[in-house]
Amino acid sequence: MKIIFWNIRGMGQLARVRQLKELMSQEKVDIIGIQETIKQSFSSQELERLSLGGPFSWNWVPSRGHSGGILIGVKEDLLKVENWEQGEFFVGATVRHRILNFRWDVLVVYGPANHEVSMSFLEELRMGCQEAELPLMIGGILISSDVYKTKAQGLVMKS
Fold it and tell me: Where in the numbering of this chain does the Endonuclease/exonuclease/phosphatase domain appear (predicted)?
């Protein structure tokens, strides 16, 4: 099974979308998590064109202006999405392996560039982790900054 998390920095450019399709095809990706799509929505035709090698289930969080946006795709031949979950800074899925019957949660996150909302992001991430009842995989951009410190319940995070 292959899972890829990628900060694509905009899906409005045909070259970026072509790169994504090539990567998904070459690597035979089962789950793809894309950050910084910089798109409000996706048409069914756009998502269908990305679904090389089999059908995918898709979900997304829209961008805010010229930043953010998250897209997750789960290949349906091997995996089944049992539940979608969305927040301000993440999109996730409860996934079940069709053969092994193994279930887990996948979260694709994109941390804020605006440090004023970093604590909101960390709180949303903390709640998502705390509420998880299944094994949890998190991928993406956790904090979008060069270097800074933030304190959250006694934990100092550095990027």
Answer: 6-126
155's tokens: 């934990």
Give the tens place of pLDDT for each residue, 143-155.
654 434 444 444 4
Enumerate helices (H) and strands (E) in the chain, giving the number of each.
Answer: 3, 10
First-last CA distance in the chain:
28
110: β partners:
141
Residue owning tokens 């069709």: 98
Q: For the chain, which domains are there? A: 3-158 (3.60.10.10)
Highest mean pLDDT among 9-23, 55-69, 75-89: 75-89
Give 141-147 contacts, CB < 8 A, sequence gap 24+.
Answer: 141/7, 141/35, 141/36, 141/109, 141/110, 141/111, 142/109, 142/111, 143/111, 143/112, 143/118, 144/110, 144/111, 144/112, 144/113, 145/113, 145/115
The whole model's pTM is what?
A: 0.86
Selection from 69, 42, 68 nearest residue 57 by Cα? 42
Cα–Cα distance list, 135 to 38, 85, 89 (Å): 29, 15, 20
